Amino acid sequence: MKTNTEGRLVIISGPSGAGKSTVVRSLIQECPLPLVLSVSATTRPPRPDERDGREYYFLSSQQFEELRRDGQFLECEEVFGRGHWYGTLRPQVTTGLKQGQWVILEIDVQGAMRVLEDKDLQPITIFLHPGGIEELEQRLRARGTETEEAITRRLEVSVGELALMHRYRHEVINDTVERATSEICEILKSYQERNACSKS
Ligand SMILES: Nc1nc2c(ncn2[C@@H]2O[C@H](COP(=O)(O)OP(=O)(O)O)[C@@H](O)[C@H]2O)c(=O)[nH]1
Ligand SMILES: Nc1ncnc2c1ncn2[C@@H]1O[C@H](COP(=O)(O)OP(=O)(O)O)[C@@H](O)[C@H]1O
User: Which residues bind ATP (predicted)?
Assistant: First the structure.
């Protein structure tokens, strides 16, 4: 049983372009809980506005493989099947939880399913999506970070991801960043209250 001295694990998934990074950034700023983002490792190249250690730890395939062999990943996946690997670094999670933080994993659906296999972790699971494929496509294009081929691939993958939405405890529509942030914050606060009740 989790207690509120221990921190919680929070998984936020959703298709590429749903607004996960934007909403998570806003959540960490606005929500009065000790939230922290687990910074994943990836072999994909950084986008122009991304910094090593902030959005991701950007690693070579060899560095990633070494960490994998060393058991440093809680889970890792080749997302989008294009040779780019992503993984949750175990120390990011264990250190945060020990310090009483609520550690957010912004990870894909397959990675989330792997984390759910560990019955001790009891993550709060949230699926974020923009309400429609057309909106998703528009946001991906507006972000201007992907090639046409990458956008097509991401939209193809999103169909499979949306089909697994029912595996998440909460579904949140990112219509506006402010509203989605507020809804997720309320969801998380409801768990804090449950934790407090289970202590008495
Ligand atoms: N399994 C897993 N997926 C991750 C991890 N980090 C990021 N992802 C997912 O990888 C996918 C691609 O991320 P990214 O390249 O940043 O593109 P974006 O989602 O379009 O911003 C998204 O679904 C992320 O949630 C991780 O550590 N593990
Ligand atoms: N509620 C929203 N309404 C309109 N645009 C949004 C909204 N949330 C995010 N965006 C924009 O959509 C694009 C994708 O958001 P991003 O956070 O990068 O998505 P993800 O991390 O899920 O791939 C970005 O350009 C972002 O500014």
Answer: 14-21
- Give the residue whose CA is nearest to atom 13 of ligand 1: 16
For the chain, domain boundaries: 8-199
Confidence label for 22 from pLDDT (cuts 50, 70 and 90): very high
Q: Two tokens at 6?
A: 């221990």
Tell which atom from ligand 2 comes closest to the C-alpha of 174: 1
Residue 111 and residue 102: Cα distance in Å, rounded? 18
How far is the C-alpha of 108 from the C-alpha of 191, rounded, in Å? Answer: 23
Q: What is the pLDDT of residue 42?
A: 98
Cα separation values, 10 from 35, 67, 76, 193, Å? 9, 23, 17, 16
Span 62-91, average pLDDT: 94
pTM confidence score: 0.94
Measure the CA–CA gap between 12 and 88, rounded to whole angstroms: 13
